[in-house]
Amino acid sequence: MKLVKNPCLPLTALRRCHATSSSTAAAATDFDCDGGVGTRSDVKHQKPSSNASPRHLKYQLYSLLGSASPGRLSAALSILRGMLPPDSTSPPDAATRSIVFYGLAKRSQPLNEESLALLVEMAKMGLFPHDAILFTQFITKLCRCGATSGAWDFFHAVKDAGGSIEAPVCNALLTGLAAIQDFERMNLLFSEMKSFGVRPDVVTFGILINCLCKSCRIHDALNVLDAMSSPDSGVTPGTIIFNTVIGGLCKAGRLQDGLSLLDRMKSSHACDPDSVTYTSLIDAFCEATELDKAHELLTRMEKERVAVDVVILNTFIYRMCRHGMIGSALNFFRKKKVEWPEVKGNAFTYTVLIGAFLHSNNVGWAMTLFDEMIKEGVSPDSVTYSTLICGLTQVGKLDDAYSNVSLMRKNGFRVDIKSYNILISGFCKKKRLDKALEIHDEICEAGLRPDIFTYTSLIDAFCKAGDFSKAGKFLNKMVDNGCNPDVVTYGTLINGYCKSGDLELVMKIFKSMDVSMVPANAVIYTTLIDSYCKNQKVDAAIYLFDEMQEKDILPNVRTYTAIFKGLKNRNMFDKAFELMDKMNLQGCKPDYVTMDLLTGWLTVIATSSGQMEDEAGEESRCLHLTALRHLHASFSTDVIDCDGGVGTRSDEKHLLTKKHSHNASLCNLNYQLHSLLDTTSALPYRSSAAGSPPPPPP
């Protein structure tokens, strides 16, 4: 029987030979049994053995830099440090430098400051990548890892050491500087390129223009475009450059300048606009509701035989729907389906239209478009289903909305927490708490975590239903799951317990907000003040009112109305005058409820005071009417006449207000105010507090 030589024997012999030679360099690096680097305490300071061959050191560097372990990087840089003068008389050669910089450029982990300092030190010694491509890759790597300052230092160290600088490496550094919007260094580098003898290319100008446009520095971008267009620049702006500047002009609202640049790119540069050029302009004019101009651009686009696409179609439809022109958007879609047979509506097209019709409470058209979408072979995406869930919930079609959840899962889409929250909120508002709980359980079974909106919706629903046991259960579950209550959650609990009349527990919850570092807002204070006033605890309400102002929380008109009700029940008109002055000084305008409350109360007081014939009675009457004048001065600014002009005293009976639901009541109230004030016009004006405004002119 003929023996066959084992083909692996040469490899085995080579491995044994390598193991023998590498044992002499064991002091350089320790490998554990898993192939990792040992954890010597002095690994950062280890030096290559004097017996280690350059070839072996290269092998070690290549092996260490090829690993993602931070420890291996540290070991590699320690070996590299030991190869530098004065520790070594044989600095890294070109091959070693290529291994080092190639390995560092390919690593996914960023370099620390110590590593960057070592590399800059090497560059100053003339030890840097002489290959332009590798140099560019290394600068790009540093910038992408957030070490742009290190890239700047390394770049200039190479330049100062006599390294060759070319446009690509300058562009790589410019890109990094643009990402952090370091305009000062960008301008400096652009100026330095001339001293390097490096001519900016199209990419250089493109980086500058793109960064300036994104930063809304459109004037500077136009200056760079002019410099690029000059004969001595050596480059010519192309369609992409013009598209960038036109897009920047459109975002800045300079639509006419964008049109002028469109004409310039054709006449002065013989540069043909493309669909991106026209899309930017059309979108800007549609957003500015200048649809006629947008249609003119579309006509011009078709005459110039610029290919229309679904982006143009969607731009018109989206902007029309945003401006409430839903019928026009649908007609445009129907018309273009015939005129542009090669352009088909996609999921975005149908989703926008479906969402718009649902938002306008037109469920029939929304579902017709959804059926048409399926018939046309356009697959709904997750956004489509989410739009249906949200829209159907808002119009009260909760069961139809929930059916889309199973349809969504059936088609391979994962229902997100936002869609579930919309459904839970909808079922809670309809008091279908069993279904809301079912959806909550479904969220947990799907592997999703209920968020603060989920819990707050359920807590609010159970508080309103008077089931505080379940509300507390979900509050505890919320905290256990690491979801801290926010001001809305606390407001929900406080509102619920206030309605139940348990003010003692309410104050415990309110005080716990300070412990939880959740600041109360005007809504919570208003709820508390209103509840205390309704329970005849006006002094406590006044204390809370003063406390909220000490915390720089401005009361709103509802806060004032709530406390005025309490003051009226206790007939504390002196405090009411004080708060009315504060209300005026804060610029808080009373609404219909406030005016109705105070007018009735102060009219009774003023009338009863007028029956007193002494000086005190006259003083009291004057004071009350002054307060009414102040209120009227604030209130009358919101009153308009039937033609939209400002009303006058002669036609006060015919005034209407901006709030159409209270038009008649407000007109009647304002007329009563004038009737009362007219009968007392002979009384002297006396301010109830320093700094109060004068009465309104007749």
Automatic annotation (TrEMBL):
Tell me the keywords, alphabetical order.
Repeat
Q: Where are the transmembrane segments?
A: none
- Entry-linked PANTHER family: PENTATRICOPEPTIDE REPEAT-CONTAINING PROTEIN 3, MITOCHONDRIAL
* Protein's UniProt name: Pentatricopeptide repeat-containing protein
SUPFAM superfamilies for the chain: HCP-like
Q: Which InterPro entries match?
A: PPR_rpt, TPR-like_helical_dom_sf
Task: Return the PPR repeat spans.
Answer: 166-200, 201-237, 238-268, 274-308, 346-380, 381-415, 416-450, 451-485, 486-520, 521-555, 556-590
Organism per entry: Zingiber officinale (Ginger)
Family membership:
Belongs to the PPR family. P subfamily.
The domain of life is Eukaryota
